[in-house]
Amino acid sequence: MPESILSIDNCLLKFMLLQYNPNMMRNKLLSKSVKFQMIFLILLISMSGYARKFYVSTNGSNNNDGTELSPWKDIAFACNYSKFVLGDTISIGVGTFIETEVCQIPCGINLIGSGTGNTIIKSSKSPVLFLENCQNPSNRQHIAGFSLDGQNKLAGEVGLEVRKVYGIFIHDIVVENFKGNGNGGGINLSYADNCNVYNCTLKNNAGESINECGGNLGVGELNNCNFYNLFIQSDNAYGIKTSITAANVIKNTKFFNIHIEVSPNSCSHWNNIAFELYGIHCQNVKIFNCYMNNVLSLSPFSVHTISNKSVEIYNNHFQIPNSINAYAIEATVDNLNIHNNYFEGGLYPIASWENSPILNNILIHHNVFDNQNGPTGIIHMPGGVTNSSFYNNTVVLRTPIRCFNLKNGSDCIY
């Protein structure tokens, strides 16, 4: 029996002995309270195996038993262990691990490194780490504490692929220099419920497929998820990219405290984009406290918001270089609430395509618009809007430009 279980059992046994009182054993019957305590503690002892740790070390061997004194060598080997129980943890030690197989993370098992600067994982396989089909509502597991090294884009396409999961926590990891594809090259997360991704750095993992640009972080089909405290930098293609799924729904999800920097014009298929939600039905999605140096794209026709104010964009800083042909928000969707943002530079802050339909329920208020240089200074929605409001905004015009371009009426300020 592992030492961790023995120590727990011994502590519980000592506690049980302390609770025992011979004076309560009259007629050889225990009181109900003592019986209950003993039954409860026996149950705790039987469940103590749910907190075991298994170890992987660069000095280990796959012939070992995975204990701290006798660790395994390969992470993929550890992931294939057949006697895990829910709540177990694979603890990865300090060093650089060269993997030759994909690590298929079991459901309910935590994969924890010794820190992003201490545990480095390299592999020629793609993805390096893979988790799927863990949709039981009782599932809870953490993936954290290491760096995935794409070896200057000489390794595989994807660092971490996660799909069809419930209760996943991905945090405190660094993913760098994977080739990428049409989805997310650093982390690709889809069909996820109650997920959290935080305290991660994703750098230069975006690639391209035949017809589209990919991103560092791929997202699709999410419910009750949070993405926060992320640093995303891309020398090619997008920061955050939609992974097209069957129903194309993202609902009850927040993106906040995210810093996204992408190259101005590096994707061969389209102008570069910081954050793209393409083909997604957005329901109660919030994007706030973020920095972006390129477009936040809510692409036309394929994106359909359902409930009122189903996409709220607030407290963000959009800093668009005037040297590139870009705008801050590509907003060809209904039911938008855009407020308390700082829009700096670019062609025009909020725009829709020339052939877009009339948009409904667009609220734009309490924003600051500064130093735009396009033909339209603030709102460029040639398809027109209805049931919409523009109020309590601050506009700083540094050159004579038109402020509004709307099919159903223009208010021009020079």
Features:
about 425 residues; disordered N terminus; mainly beta; elongated; 6-stranded parallel sheet; 34 strands; disordered C terminus; 3 helices
What spatial form do the alpha-carbon principal axes imply?
elongated
Number of helices: 3
Please tally the β strands and state the result. Answer: 34
The residue fraction in helices comes out at under 10%
Report on the architecture of this protein.
By secondary structure, this protein is mainly beta. It is 9% helix and 43% strand. Helix 3 (75-79) links the parallel strand 1 and strand 2 (89-92). The longest helix has 17 residues, at 3-19. The model is unreliable at 1-30, 39-49 and 410-414 (pLDDT under 50).
Summarize the structure.
The chain has helices spanning 3-19, 32-47, 75-79; strands at residues 53-56, 89-92, 95-99, 103-104, 110-112, 119-123, 129-134, 141-149, 160-166, 168-176, 184-193, 196-203, 215-223, 226-234, 238-242, 249-262, 273-277, 281-288, 291-292, 295-298, 311-314, 317-320, 329-331, 336-339, 342-345, 350-351, 359-360, 362-365, 368-370, 376-381, 385-386, 389-391, 394-396, 402-406. With 414 residues, the protein is mostly beta strands. The protein has a 26-stranded parallel β-sheet that branches. It has a six-stranded parallel β-sheet with strand order 17-20-23-26-30-34, with no helix packed on it.
SSE diagram, text form:
Blueprint: H1 3-19, H2 32-47, E1 53-56, H3 75-79, E2 89-92, E3 95-99, E4 103-104, E5 110-112, E6 119-123, E7 129-134, E8 141-149, E9 160-166, E10 168-176, E11 184-193, E12 196-203, E13 215-223, E14 226-234, E15 238-242, E16 249-262, E17 273-277, E18 281-288, E19 291-292, E20 295-298, E21 311-314, E22 317-320, E23 329-331, E24 336-339, E25 342-345, E26 350-351, E27 359-360, E28 362-365, E29 368-370, E30 376-381, E31 385-386, E32 389-391, E33 394-396, E34 402-406
Parallel strand pairs: 1-2, 2-5, 3-6, 4-7, 5-8, 6-8, 7-9, 8-10, 9-11, 10-12, 11-13, 12-14, 13-15, 13-16, 14-16, 16-18, 16-19, 17-20, 18-21, 19-22, 20-23, 21-24, 22-25, 23-26, 24-28, 25-29, 26-30, 27-31, 28-32, 29-33, 30-34
Helix pairs in contact: 1-2
